[in-house]
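Narrative summary of target 7.
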Amino acid sequence: MRQILLTLILCLSVVLGTAQNSTLFKQATEFYNKGEYTKAIENYGKILENGEHSAELYFNLGNCHYKLNAIGPSILYYEKALLLKPNDKEILNNLGYAQNMRLDAVEEMPKTEIAQLYLGLVNFLSFDQWAYLAVALTLLFVLAYLAYFFLRPATQKRIALISSMFSLVLGALCVLLAYLQFQEFKHDNPAIIFSKEVKISSEPNTNSEVVFTLHEGTKVNVEEEFNDWSKIKIADGQTGWLLNDNLRLLKDF
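Modeled conformation, tokenized:
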């Protein structure tokens, strides 16, 4: 009886939480349409505090900060949205506008055509999406294989068998791509510079040599951490150290 009661309470809290988030989202959208971007951000922030994360939520937060000319936060939230919804044209378009406001123009290290094709394929979907697609193809394989046994006409049996094998191969490929994408996601630790200007040091201390300077909105990758310092790498291959307060991690949700 106690377990049933706890389950009912849990279900009720989920329903109430969803309803509250829906109301907050609607109010935030109304604030945005009225040009009250700070109030919209407050409402979206409350939804985040309730534990809800979505590409749409981060995209709207990015839009609000962009309207307020907040370079760092706008890029941060667009990048977060892109993690959950890779290759979304609208997110990429708005992210491009926000990136144009940056002071730093870091050129990426050149990649071979094979590397570009590999990254384009692996990152075409998130690892969750690749996994869902693999499950769908596996179900299709099972259905087609069952159809092969139950169908009588030779032509239909042949089509069912070919379809089942094709689905199986594609499903296995999706599993592989999900694994590769997950490994890349796990080893990559991107962050956005939040300070207006930060000097990057050669060592994790305030007395070391300054190797270069970065500005708000620049995307970096955190290689390692030491006390309050992070070793970062930028797109052109340069590395250095900065205090953690100067950046915000993308994968903190």
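The first helix runs from residue 2 to 33.
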